[in-house]
Structure formats: C-alpha cells, structure tokens
Amino acid sequence: MGKVVMYATVSVDGFIADEKDDPGELFDWLVGGDVPLDDSGVLKVSQVSYAYTRTYWDQIGVTIAGRRVFDLTDGWDGKPPAGVENVVVVTHRPPPEGWDPEAPFHFVEGIEAAVAKAQELAGGRIVEVAAGDVGGQVLAAGLVDEVRMDVAPVVFGSGKRFFGSVHAQQLLEDPDAVIQGNRVLHLRFPVRR
C-alpha cells in the first residue's frame, strides 16, 4: 500500500484559494525560478524547490481530488496533472456529459472508496490527496500518513481552508522536512498515529 499524502500550496494564514476559488499569488514560486519543473515550459522553480518537488512528483501514482477541483480545472482536459497516471474524483455525480471514458479518471462516491481505488491504482506508489474539503475529510478519517504543504508568503484573510471544514483535532509529528525555496517554504509532517 502506498503512503497517503495530503498536499497543496497554502497561504501563511492557511488558505488554498480565496472565497472565489482564486489562488492568487500562491503559485508564484512555481513560475518564478529558472529550473524547468516539467516539460510544459511554464513551471520554473528554484533549484532547491526543483530537487524537493520533482522527487515528490515522481513518486505519485494517483491523485485524489474532489468534484469541485475537477470542475474548476475542466478535468485537466482529460490528462492528469504533473505527470500523474490516474485521478480519482470524489463525487456523487456521474462524469460530465461527453467525458472520454478512456481518460484515466475514476469517479467514486465517498472518501473510503476513493482511497481504496487510489491504493489499487497506485501500485505501491504515493497516493496524493488534494488539500481542501476532501483532503480534510480523509485526514479526519485517519487515512492520511503525511501532510505536505508549500507555504507561500501570501495572506488571504479568508477563503478555502487547507484542511477544509473539518473541525476535529489531528496531531502531526515534528516536520521531517523544512526547505526554503524562492517565495515558498516546503514543509512535510508525518501524521501522528
């Protein structure tokens, strides 16, 4: 079974987007460097961020996201982001009309079913859970092994919370990675069991 990692870029005050789902300057670190992070030619980061992020991305087998993220990104045009092989979408609704059934997206109901399907597809690789409401639910259910966050020097004041609307306390271990990049602080916390 692959490790389950909750991940996102987050503002200093704990938000992954503003009230209108706009991430604003959160992703400046992904375009403000000189080292290409992928083949798109768009994402360029500092060497430090490249070493940390590329290593992590290369270990991800599956990403779990909620239907809201899927809809906001237009399903990434049927191509999973960051070179991930499969995306599991947590939803109560069917795929959009006209959706290519061959696209590597799997629509499931409920977080337990999503994690089980992702583990099956990941083949021992990392299962990444997008932060926000779905990520917070997976964390509260005790299914997350590690929390990773890229903290950007942005303050929103309000918006979409990193841990979603979950109100249960969850303890994390001391960070086992604290890496400073340009316009970002990469943090990795094992979840206390």
From TrEMBL:
<protein>
    <submittedName>
        <fullName>Dihydrofolate reductase</fullName>
    </submittedName>
</protein>
<dbReference type="InterPro" id="IPR024072">
    <property type="entry name" value="DHFR-like_dom_sf"/>
</dbReference>
<feature type="domain" description="Bacterial bifunctional deaminase-reductase C-terminal">
    <location>
        <begin position="3"/>
        <end position="170"/>
    </location>
</feature>
<dbReference type="InterPro" id="IPR002734">
    <property type="entry name" value="RibDG_C"/>
</dbReference>
<dbReference type="Pfam" id="PF01872">
    <property type="entry name" value="RibD_C"/>
</dbReference>
